[in-house]
Amino acid sequence: MKVILNSALAFNKDATNPKFRFRNGLRMRKIRLSTAVIPVSWYNVTGQTNTLQIVEGTTPKRVLLPPGIYSGESLSDALSDALNETGSQSYSVIHDSTTMKLQVTTTGGTPFQFTFAESSAYKILGLTKDTQKATDITLPHPIDLSGCKSIIVAIDEVLNDTIYAGIDNLGVMDVIPVTVDYGGVLVHQNMDGSYVDPKDQVISTMSIRLLNGETLEPLDLNAENFQLVFDVI
Q: pTM value?
């Protein structure tokens, strides 16, 4: 039997963690994900990856990037705006489209540095350690705007012997690689024939979570809806 669930029809109206109700109960011995249709609409800079710290002279300052979907050019513009809003001197940021690195320069005369440990945006910016203090800094590694690279489809109502990233109670149905650029739609066909067991053979509700496969944070599709198709026996 096929069970088709679209997050737009969830009874709790929560696109991040939609819950579905089966009025007469859904009977199943086994279940597997057959097809997933998921819009690639999440941010590549999120509220968990948007902070960085600079030190101007001896003064530390926390800089915030607005969450959003960025390209190299728009990231350099946003970083320039954030530095100029927070810092006490003027900054300019250039994105090199060949090396994919950011160059940050100040004309204020006070040497500054980026600190690694206090910056959640370190991976996005290409920062792997504290920089040396200077008035002209090229960050050591290319920017990384790939964002979420894989999606975990987790269902609370299934039993699963898969331990993912040291966590054994995620109810992992599938892990989907992200192979589509931002703005596109990811269509995943499950070629694995294996099924998983439900916790109960008759369920009245099903709760679905899409998680970032790297951070295990809930994947926010920014009000876009997704559809999952399950095979149930």
A: 0.84
What stretches of the chain show up as alpha helix (H) in DSSP? 72-86, 122-125
Determine the Cα–Cα distance for residues 212 and 166; give it in Å rounded to an integer. 15
Would you call 214 helix, strand, or coil by DSSP?
coil
Residue 94, strand partner residues: 103
Amino acid at position 158, single letter: V
Residue 137 to residue 211: CA distance in whole angstroms: 35
What does the block give as tokens for 222?
């920014």
Residue 161: exposure state from Cβ atoms within 10 A (0-12, 13-18, ≥19): exposed
Q: What is the pLDDT of residues 155-164, one digit of tens each?
A: 988 766 565 6
pLDDT in tens, 68-119: 999 999 999 999 999 999 999 999 999 999 999 999 999 999 999 999 988 9
34 CB burial (10 A radius; 0-12, 13-18, 19+):
middle
Q: With 0-12 CB in 10 A as exposed, 13-18 as middle and 19+ as buried, what is 115?
A: middle
- The pair of three-digit structure tokens given for residue 183, joined into one six-digit string: 């703005």
Distance (Å) of CA 196 to CA 18, 142, 191, 193, 209: 20, 40, 15, 10, 16
